[in-house]
Amino acid sequence: MYYSSNGGGFFASVPPVTKNIIIVNVLIMIMTALDRSGFMYETFSLFYPGSPLFKPWQIVTHIFMHGGFWHLFFNMYTLFFFGVTLERIWGPKKFLLFYFVTGIGAALLHMLTQYIQVQVYMNEIANGSAAAATAIHDLMRTPTVGASGAVYGVLLGFAMLFPNSVLTLLFPPVSLKAKWMVIIFAAIELVTGVFSIGGGIAHFAHLGGMLFGLLLILYWKKKYRLYKYE
User: Fold this and answer.
1) Rounded to whole angstroms, how far apart are CA atoms 86 and 96?
2) Which of 217, 61, 108 is nearest to 153 (CA)?
3) DSSP string of 86-115?
4) What is the pTM of this model?
5) Tell me: the pLDDT tens digits for 43-61?
6) 69-90 vs 92-126: helix crossing angle, rounded to 10
7) What b/e sequence results for 120-139 when a residue is b if at least 16 CB atoms lie within 10 Å of its CB, and e otherwise?
8) Which of 101, 106, 140, 184 could pair with 205 as two cysteines, CB 3.0-4.6 Å apart?
């Protein structure tokens, strides 16, 4: 066990925003697991804007929802690993802004891809496709959950600040420089998203988190605010 200088335990040394995001995610996962009515998923997951289940706040709240223990674990593990460093450099307010910009940006790109899918299905329905009608019904009622978009944004932020840091994946145990790992992850998400590989995973949400993280960091660099503690 490691201890911080103020005598608290290891978790006490974690910066406040990273720590509280993890705590809130864990609490919401517990609440969701205890909910037998489906209220949590129907109310706080993200649904396509054309769905009767869509509510505006879902663009934010879905970032704190998860599909199960391992989904939560890997997202929070990655957030902890990279978020601590970014928050210590940027400060709590700036890191929190970055987290929400990447999480909401991920949702926006995901919804854009859904909109394109809906237009394709509508054209197919006009041509008499019953399968397209079923597909559009399923899309309208399929929730999107998870902090993955924001976490991918955090990963990109770390790679841009520390491009030559060597990172080792858990599975498989491969070591790469951060800049190459992020490029590889982005390429995988793009290919799997375009070719619809790995159903049930919002690949373009991951890319959206990276894209909005990139844009925000480039903006900060242009304004000479990248390393300014706020």
Assistant:
1) 10
2) 217
3) HHHHH-HHHHHHHHHHHHHHHHHHHHHHHH
4) 0.91
5) 999 999 999 999 999 999 9
6) 130
7) ebeebbeeeeeebeebbeeb
8) 106
- Split at pLDDT 50, 70, 90, the class of 168 is confident
Assign residue 38 a region (left: φ > 0; alpha: ψ between -120 and 50; beta: otherwise): left
Q: How long, in residues, is the chain? A: 230
CA 183 vs CA 107, 156, 177, 178, 210: distances in Å: 21, 9, 10, 9, 10
- The two beta strands, 166-168 and 175-177, are antiparallel
Angstrom distance (rounded) from CA 28 to CA 133: 34
Q: How far is Cα 99 from Cα 17, in angstroms, rounded to an integer?
A: 10
Q: Are 50 and 118 in contact (CB under 8 A)?
A: yes
206/189 Cα distance (integer angstroms): 7
Residue type, 115: Y
pLDDT digits (tens, 9 = 90+) for 183-212: 999 998 999 888 876 567 888 999 999 999
State whether residue 12 is helix, strand or coil.
helix
DSSP for 150-194 reads HHHHHHHHHHHHSTT-EEE-SSS--EEEHHHHHHHHHHHHHHHHH
